Amino acid sequence: MAAHLSPLSHTSPATAASVAAVATATLPEIAQRLRQALREVVGHRALLIFTEDCTGRPQKKAGDPEITEHASILELEDVRRRLASGEDVRTARIGGQDRPVLALAAPTGAILVLCEPDAEDAAALEDTTTASAYVRIVWEMAATRIRQQVSDASPAYLVESRAASAERLRVTTELTESHATDLESLLALLRNTGIDDRRARAAAVELATTALVHAKTRSDVVVALTEEPVASAFERLRADLRPLTRFGRLDVQFVEPPADGRALPGEVAHAARAIVRSAVLAFNDQPDTTRVRIQWDCDGTNLLIKLRDDGAGALDGSVAELRQVQARVSILGGRAELTGVPGWGSEIDVTLPLDAPPPATSGWDLAPRERDVLRLIAAGQRNRQIATTLGISENTVKFHTSHLYRKLGVSSRAAAAAAAIASGLR
């Protein structure tokens, strides 16, 4: 059980240090640091964060691997939906089990789930205003820190985000497995000879209707985590630059992208906005610049960004803002070109690929049979189906699967399938 906070105990040096660690945490560190800060008030087995701000890894987890390795995005989306409806969420299905939880939403839209909180500590939160305020303040600080880092789109974040595209594929795999379960349930019902046709038909209709609702909801989650429409991404850019256009000396002109352009992967949308912000700041530092033109377009494969000013055409690519632009572009495998014509202005052309290159599979060192098993896992087959397809025993399939998990560095079937799909193994 955690030590309960008195009105002054949260100002101790140790507590202050743990809060400061949250305020300065990087994205990979933030869950663990937040857990350390909150455990001073409420003990818990695991901490889960779910945020659409960070499209690379919307889950951030710390604590007991039995929970963190099995918690799914769809489970956390369900918690978020319940919180948004005003429900006081005390229990939730996490990691395939119903568990007591302490769940909080932040103004950014992110949610925090403390799994299996110490019962006495959780009760103390309701009775102690100071302790409850501490938990909420530290959590909202963490959520703001996440949004800030994603908005900045640092090269480190973009590396992590693009490398984590398998996370989104894992969600898709979870969705596929859920569909398979619904279909198996429907078939089992229709094959049941113990109920008459009328009752079977009514039950089948109810089951199918429920499955369709779930499928639509979950598909919306997958899309939201994977992509951002180019028009809404551009509108968010307008909002980012609004203070500069309202109070600054620059006349910023926006050329809208095609409304029907291809949606942008999350990391590309974040990077594109950060690239434009940095470039506009570089333009703004030129004393003779009064107007900047910003244009986005999409050729189906790349996001095309063109920025032009009306300055002296002497913008230096070595300035800090443009070095940051180049770093972000390089991380995403794109190209950036700066040109200037004396007396006519400077122009920056950026090309950002919308698709990440597939990761190489050579480092996995898979045996031919392991590769066969992985390909069938990616196709959605169960162990029994794989055994039949390959003419081997189910135990042999399990043996190969355990070796695959170790070689791929994953801990679940969905993650293995996502890694295979991301690598192009079909």
From TrEMBL:
Highest taxon, organism lineage: Bacteria
Gene Ontology MF terms in the entry: DNA binding
A single BP term in Gene Ontology: regulation of DNA-templated transcription
Entries under InterPro entries matching the protein: HATPase_C_sf, Sig_transdc_resp-reg_C-effctor, Tscrpt_reg_LuxR_C, WH-like_DNA-bd_sf
Keyword Transcription annotated: yes
Cross-referenced Pfam families: GerE
PROSITE patterns: HTH_LUXR_1, HTH_LUXR_2
Keywords: DNA-binding, Transcription, Transcription regulation
Residues annotated as domain HTH luxR-type: 359-424
Protein name, UniProt field: LuxR C-terminal-related transcriptional regulator
